[in-house]
């Protein structure tokens, strides 16, 4: 049972980490390895970008009609550590966002649609498993309301993500939805989906969190 009042969850891909180039490169290599055909027409950043954030099998089915989705997915996961991982970069403001939560006595969760082993290797490669940054909970293989179920169990009050699926997760859990427009979906799209606030990136999160906590404090005093 959670013991901290403040619990904040984060999505991974395109929220904490710019993983688009690594995903595209690995998808292309998996397609070529399995089918023996050209991958550049089917798998390129332009076609893949709008699909970032969705579960892997859904991305494969959309990009590569008629393929054996499970075989491509298995091949992708085997290739990712050597093909995609080194292409990832940390998005602006991650360290500052985690620090702001910890300074407020809170817990940090990372909940992703990516497979859980992949979440761990991505976080580790970018230094986010070091003691001062390591999330209190790491979970993978969840999208949309499946993320929301875990957020609810953990007592999360805030969920941060770049995707409308992340907005759905927050709303399911009754948490404040903080969108970041670092992914394929615009601030307008995130707002229309129900995000409570949309930031340009995580550099704006500490200031938002401070104001949010101050508002909660005033509300409690008023009650």
From TrEMBL:
InterPro entries: HAD-like_hydrolase_sf, HAD-like_sf, HAD_sf, PGP-like_dom2. The keyword Transmembrane does not apply. GO terms for molecular function: phosphoglycolate phosphatase activity. Transmembrane segments: none annotated. Gene3D superfamilies: HAD superfamily/HAD-like, Putative phosphatase, domain 2. PANTHER family: HYDROLASE-RELATED, PHOSPHOGLYCOLATE PHOSPHATASE. This is HAD family hydrolase. It comes from Kineosporia babensis. The lineage of its organism: Bacteria, Bacillati, Actinomycetota, Actinomycetes, Kineosporiales.
């Amino acid at each position: 049972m959670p013991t901290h009042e403040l619990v904040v969850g984060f999505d991974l891909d395109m929220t904490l980490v710019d993983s688009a180039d690594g995903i595209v490169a690995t998808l292309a290599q998996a397609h070529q390895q399995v089918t023996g055909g050209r991958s550049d027409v089917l798998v390129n950043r332009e076609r893949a970008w709008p699909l970032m954030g969705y579960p892997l099998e859904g991305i494969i089915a959309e990009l590569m009609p008629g393929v054996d989705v499970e075989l491509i997915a298995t091949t992708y996961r085997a290739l990712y550590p050597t093909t995609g991982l080194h292409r990832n970069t940390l998005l602006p403001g991650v360290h500052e966002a985690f620090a702001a939560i910890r300074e407020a006595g809170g817990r940090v969760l990372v909940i992703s649609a990516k497979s859980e082993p992949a979440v761990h290797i991505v976080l580790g490669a970018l230094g986010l498993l070091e003691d001062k940054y390591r999330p209190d909970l790491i979970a993978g293989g969840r999208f949309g309301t499946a993320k929301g179920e875990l957020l609810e169990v953990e007592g999360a009050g805030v969920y941060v993500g770049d995707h409308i699926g992340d907005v759905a997760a927050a709303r399911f859990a009754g948490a404040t939805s903080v969108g970041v427009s670092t992914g394929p979906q615009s601030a307008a799209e995130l707002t229309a989906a129900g995000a409570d606030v949309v930031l340009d990136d995580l550099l704006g999160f500490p200031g938002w969190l401070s104001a949010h906590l101050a508002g909660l404090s005033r509300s409690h005093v008023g009650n």
